[in-house]
Design goal:
Shape: rod-shaped
Structural class: mainly alpha
Order of helices and strands: H
Number of helices: 1
Distance between the termini: 153 Å
Largest sheet: none
Number of strands: 0
Strand content: under 5%
Helix content: over 70%
């Protein structure tokens, strides 16, 4: 075997190895990137869903509390006025004095 053929074979092998390594690296990088992107998307979606749920719950609770407080205040106000009006309109009963 000639020295030139051996040298050429080695060069070809090295070049093929480098190309294969680069191709494998690119493929591995793409797979890793896709996997990382999917995992990040899932985590972000989960966090966003939990945050949105908490915000919605808090807003609903606050709104419900406010409506309940307003309703209770109105009911109390009406009840108080009814009682006051009734007591004011009612004539006083005068009992005869039996001590005489």
């Amino acid at each position: 075997m000639s020295k030139v053929k051996v040298w050429t074979d080695r060069q070809t092998d090295r070049q093929t190895d480098r190309q294969t390594d680069r191709q494998t690296d690119r493929q591995t990088d793409r797979q890793t990137d896709r996997q990382t992107d999917r995992q990040t998307d899932r985590q972000t979606d989960g966090q966003t869903d939990r945050w949105t749920h908490r915000q919605t719950d808090t807003q609903t609770d606050t709104q419900t509390d406010t409506q309940t407080d307003t309703h209770t205040d109105r009911q109390t106000h009406r009840q108080t006025h009814r009682q006051t009006d009734t007591q004011t309109d009612r004539p006083k009963t005068i009992y005869p004095d039996h001590s005489i």
